[in-house]
Design a protein that fits this description.
mainly alpha
């Protein structure tokens, strides 16, 4: 029930905004409420089974299975918090609070389009899962949002630094950043070729330095089957839905086709992969995040404002996505699907332990 309260506050803010109360403060109650849930939680599939155990190993100076190859940005921040708090339990909750702080920064600096994306789409689909569960990826997504925000303001240096931070907190952000920024480069210019070359070199270096980690991940996901034959279908449907809304706009036909291959094409591949491997689900999740950012940017490239059809589609996609998220929480009620000791439902706080 507590998750539904957060979503309700979010949509109440959206209603106030559309009713004419154009003040970003209407969106903060929902974000602060979600922030409290994230900070004091004792819920989230990976909260205890992965993150607390890994941070305990880090605190005790042990290697640990889960820490092998973990991203240096996340490890360094975790070490600093463990040094300050002396507790893996407290450190993990502080990490959750910092994730919300990054989102607050994005919201404070957001323009109308960024507010629309955050409230209509990001909050309903990602706030709980990436604040309470996939913590490293959550930091990565938050830094990607800030990089996208800086890029839209033509602040290339800030965008570059934030993009690097995103990768340092989760390696999969390389894929997200490539989808987001490669369409911006003019491939035949020296500047475009320079950035492409730098990107390729960084990817090769990262692969070389963390080869054993990526090999282990590939082996793990290859053996880890998805829980259902059509897992990820709801995420795939959201990408298709958003592209159809985009295709109904006044953007030139050639760009609509181009965006189909850029956004829908990879999603089809990952949906097929999701039927046999958990890796497909992970990439589908990333496609769900990045697809609207790419499409919104495409409107800007043609100096067009997102039309009402796309705006409404974004809101509907957020609602449907939130329903799918809550359904997943219910399916794993009390850990009956994953076997976790800290399921999303029933929601528990850290105070329940003591």
């Amino acid at each position: 029930m507590v998750y539904i309260v957060g979503w309700a506050l979010n949509y109440w803010g959206l209603l106030l905004w559309h009713a004419g109360l154009r003040n970003r403060l209407v969106f903060f109650p929902a974000l602060l409420f979600a922030g409290v849930l994230i900070t004091i939680r004792d819920s989230g599939t990976d909260t205890y089974g992965i993150y607390e155990l890994a941070l305990r190993d880090l605190l005790e100076g042990a290697g640990g299975f889960w820490l092998e190859g973990w991203e240096p940005g996340f490890v360094l921040l975790s070490k600093a918090l463990l040094w300050l708090t002396g507790s893996e339990v407290v450190a993990l909750r502080v990490l959750g609070a910092l994730f919300v702080v990054l989102l607050c920064i994005f919201l404070i600096r957001a323009d109308r389009l960024e507010l629309l994306f955050f409230v209509s789409y990001f909050f309903p689909l990602f706030i709980y899962q990436y604040g309470m569960n996939a913590v490293r990826a959550g930091f990565g997504l938050a830094f990607v949002l800030l990089a996208w925000q800086a890029f839209r303001r033509n602040s290339w240096l800030s965008a570059g630094i934030l993009a690097i931070l995103a990768v340092l907190f989760h390696y999969s952000m390389v894929f997200v950043l490539a989808l987001l920024f490669l369409p911006e480069l003019k491939w035949k210019t020296s500047r475009g070729l320079f950035f492409i070359g730098v990107g390729v070199l960084l990817m090769v270096a990262m692969l070389g330095l963390r080869f054993e980690y990526f090999e282990a991940k590939l082996s793990l996901y290859s053996d880890y089957e998805t829980p259902f034959s059509f897992s990820g279908l709801s995420r795939f449907a959201l990408v298709i839905f958003l592209w159809i809304a985009f295709a109904m706009s006044s953007v030139p036909l050639a760009q609509k086709v181009r965006m189909f291959f850029w956004v829908v094409g990879p999603s089809v591949v990952f949906q097929v992969l999701a039927m046999v491997s958990y890796a497909g689900l992970r990439f589908l999740e990333l496609m769900t995040f990045v697809a609207p950012l790419v499409l919104l940017r495409e409107y800007e490239r043609w100096k067009l404002a997102p039309d009402r059809v796309f705006i409404r589609a974004l809101i509907v996609a957020g609602v449907l996505g939130a329903v799918a998220v809550y359904r997943n929480f219910l399916v794993d009620y009390d850990g009956q699907l994953t076997g976790t000791l800290t399921p999303f439902l029933p929601y528990r706080t850290i105070f329940d332990r003591w």
